[in-house]
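#struct-help
A.M.: can someone run this one for me? Single chain, 146 residues.
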Amino acid sequence: MSFNLRSKVRFFFDEASCNLNNRQRLKTFISSIFSQEKEGLATISFIFTNDKTIRQINKKYLGHDFFTDIVTFELSEKKEPIIAEVYISCDRVKENAIIHKTDFNEELHRVIFHGILHLCGYRDKTNRQIKVMRVKEADYLSKYFK
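D.P.: on it. Structure tokens below:
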């Protein structure tokens, strides 16, 4: 496996059933989201995995014993460019695509953008926060897939 050490956005796959097309375009778009949200980006690693691994991470590091589609860890100091690891369960993304009647590729990108928005300071605990998050997700999806 080779990757560009200078790339700010990195993708790792331990789940063969999760595939990303146009990876270089997506890396550029992800970097542009941070710019649009006025957040500095040092590095972000996306690790595409499965339900079992996400549940283990969720339980070990967050004390949550349940499945989720994404777990995001910001590793940078406050006021410093963002360094983060984002774990995504391809199993959950597939299930959510079925539930929300969307295709897998769109749902995968929504989850990716969701994690980025959390790193940019958006939350989704209240109804108002959820609404703002959904609007931002939809905006970035429409820009990416136009």
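A.M.: thanks! Residues 23 and 103 are 18 Å apart (CA to CA).
D.P.: also worth noting: The first strand starts at residue 9 and ends at 13.
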